[in-house]
Fold this protein.
Amino acid sequence: MSLSTCPACGSQQIRSFYRHTAAPVHSVLVHHSQADALALRCGEIQLGFCQNCGFIFNQTFDPTLQDYSLEYESTQGFSPTFGTFARQLAQYLVDRYDLHGKRVIEIGCGQGEFLQLLCAMGDNHGIGFDPAYMPGRISNLSPELTAPESPQFVRDYYSEKYSQYQADLIVCKMTLEHIQPVAEFVSTVRRSIGDHLLTAAFFQIPDARRILQEAAFWDVYYEHCSYFSLGSLARLFRKCGFEVMSLRRGYDDQYLMIEARPTENAQLQGPLPEEDDLAETEALVEQFALFAPERITAWQGALRRWQTQRKRVMLWGGGSKAVAFLTTLGVREEVIGALDINPYKDGSFLAATGTPVYAPQHLPTLQPDIILLMNPIYQQEVSEQLAQFGLKPTLLAITNAPEER
């Protein structure tokens, strides 16, 4: 069934513009056998653009196919590049909202790394909600910091049944894009806050503008059923009873970040200058629809050419981008494996293709000729690791079409 009503604003002015019929329903579950990886169920993606508010969503998303189990592994905390960004963001929030001895809620907290940062930096009291939280799972996000009081974790989805938990700051990072009824969810957060009008909310999500500009088909996967621009994000929050205080991009313009406070008069606030992007987003949707198929064809040709030349090709990054890249292209043997610095992924297999995942220490044995970098923000970090092993493979960022090499 295809959803024809916008989950953000209720409009029926929806334009379908991209389809992928065999997307794994999960991209970052840890599969310990190739057979399990190959057996993972696939679903359909049909992206629709709301011409009224600019929201983009998967019209054929089926939430019953999702299972955020304890095998869900999405931490980026082992990357020094990401760690620096996370610590700077946490310090910004501590300073911005004077978080010292305060209460912090994180919705979709993962393994709690960021929440622990917030608690450690300001001696705060934290509670995190995530069905995939696993006690004892660690990362290198900030090993030198220890919260005086360990945060409390609830292994469940956040909902109004937890409205008894109030906070000075509600954080929700990289979670809203996993939820299709976005207006319903943000309204739930607003109702849970109630009349605590000094509570602030900070949300971070991927930036749809970058995905559209780059025709980044590898950033379109089943878990991400909702895609925002700055404008559509602000319009959603205002519609759901929030005053938008700040709206910006970060992490090399890969993420959107919104800061908001509950208000009883959201309609009185005029739009921020950054919100005037509806026409731009619509033009980028048209651009994506035109260029994504061309980019897919170009990458298919490059991988097959390298295979004919007996080049050993690997991906750097064993997460959602890698899964979407391979499954959208419909390739398997053309790539011998994926590299990932997350030790929990070493020895696992990518969803749907069964591509093996290796820790970087296996590089001297693997001896790749070409490494495709799934995210160019890690170029310097990856180059340094390759140099440590004395290896000089061709390192290519997938953000450029292969014919441009």
Notes: The chain has a mean pLDDT of 92. The radius of gyration is 21 Å.
